[in-house]
Amino acid sequence: MKFTDIPTERTTASTDAILALLALSCAFYLYSFETQELWKRKIWILIFGFIALSSTLGAVVHGFALSPSIKYLIWQALFLILGLTVALFAVGGVYDLQGYIIARQFLPIMLTVGVGFYIFTHLYSGNFFIFIVYATLVLLFALSVYLWLAINGKLLGAKFITLGIFISIIAAILQSIETISIKFIWEFDHNGIYHILQIVGLLCLVAGLRQSLLVPR
């Protein structure tokens, strides 16, 4: 495989690779300590695992000069993984708001929504703007849940989780502005900016999750 010649695609691939390594590290970190919240930990490990996988695929599709057919297959896998990842954010929020029983009942519903999102984007030729709208709506739900938990002091670490989700929403909005770019040593387009913000968001998320998982309910 040959590396792409487009500078902004290279920085996008690089930030995607960094995001993948960070997400994988977050997953292993959550797994490394004892907690009574085993089901909740599994959900968030799965979220970080999906982020790591999607970012790895993103690094490949942005960083290499691939044939259209290979790119198409990678994007199909990416849309499916991203749809499921966002759906699990909502499940995590429901768990912290309503507990294990309700969250477990909610899980198949949101997984169906995630698959439905993939089918919908497939019908519209993989329009990435559809993902941004879908992700923003679901993340706004999760944001409202954790903001309420933070304001009412119902969950230790909720402030950091709220901040992490808020940063992810801002990142998704900025990613939809294709003309945006910044230059700091290298040039970053809207995708690179999205990845940089997501890196910060993941750090906030894992900090909040650590606090919430280490404290018994």
Overview of the structural elements:
The protein has 217 residues and is mainly α. It has one domain (2-214). The protein is 80% helix and 5% strand. It has helices at 7-32, 38-63, 68-98, 100-123, 128-151, 158-175, 190-214, and strands at residues 2-3, 64-65, 182-184, 186-188. The strands form two sheets. A two-stranded antiparallel ribbon has the order 1-2. The protein starts with a strand and ends with a helix. The mean pLDDT is 92.
List keywords for this structure.
7 helices; mainly alpha; 217 residues; two-stranded antiparallel sheet; 5% strand
Radius of gyration: 17 Å
Q: Strand-and-helix sequence, N→C? A: EHHEHHHHEEH
Instruction: Give the helix proportion (percent range).
Output: over 70%
Q: What is the makeup of the main sheet?
A: 2 strands, antiparallel
- Output mean pLDDT: 92
Name the strands of the widest sheet in spatial order. 1-2
> Strand content of the residues, in percent?
under 5%
Total helical elements: 7
List how many beta strands DSSP finds: 4
In the predicted model, the low-confidence regions spanning at least 5 consecutive residues are: none
Dominant shape? globular
In the residues, how many domains can be counted?
1
- Structural class from helices and strands? mainly alpha
N-C termini distance = 50 Å
Summarize the structure.
This protein has 217 residues and is mostly helical.
